[in-house]
Amino acid sequence: LPALSLEWKEQIDALGYAELLAEIGKEETGLGELYESLFDADQRLGDIEEAIEREHEREETQRYLERQKTIQRLRTRINTRQARIDELTETALRLERIPPVISIVNRYIRLEVAASLWRTISALRGWQTREHRSLRSYLGWQTREAPLTTRIRTLLTERARWKKEADRLANQIKIEEARISYKKSILPEITLSRVSLALYLIIDAGSHEYPREPGTYYTYHRPHYRKARHTVRYPKGRFQSILECDTFIDPSTGEIRRDLEPFKTLDGVMRAEVADEFMEEFSLKTLNPYDLT
């Protein structure tokens, strides 16, 4: 297809992922409109065919169509015979124009062949004259009965026009489908992109006793310097830490490809880092990094 020329492919290959998606979306919209137009054209053709079938029942229409077929046959024969006449005329003239040669016999044979060709040409021209006369006669009948066949002639003209339009739309649809198919075929399956990840932990209300080492106490700096265990309640809710990393994603859905590096390695590293952060912030004794969501 001309639409898939090498130059066109080079232009499409140079587009980025977002530009390709935009192009595909625009062409799919146009393709839908083409399908609607083709449906309308087919509907119109169907209506015209039904009207032609009804017109066929009229005697005037039947005579018109029969004469039209005869006219078409006559024109085909006349054109074919004329091509044969032109070919034979050229051959006869070429034989007559060949310079004299030493052999008188050869020249005599050529002239006899040329004379035979001229006789054949004359007979063919006679047939041409007779069939031209018949053609003019049929065309005259068609002209005289034209007022009676206006409807069928209009319908036949409309059918030819709508058939041409339907063929054009069908060809355009093939071109658009080929373009879309090529653009989809070069869409990358994965792309490297920077993404933001939120790791969060749900913490219930509770308390934690300081210090972490069993049996030790903090000293409150109060007038009596009494010793007491220091209890701190930690908050309740969902707490998250947002990190950024470069990883491969599926461009069609935007999902991270967790089965590919570097995410397979970064996943454990980021979880461990956030777990340490939460343990420090909320004074948690232990936290499994894979408990983070």
Automatic annotation (TrEMBL):
<protein>
    <submittedName>
        <fullName>Uncharacterized protein</fullName>
    </submittedName>
</protein>
<feature type="coiled-coil region">
    <location>
        <begin position="152"/>
        <end position="179"/>
    </location>
</feature>
<keyword id="KW-0175">Coiled coil</keyword>
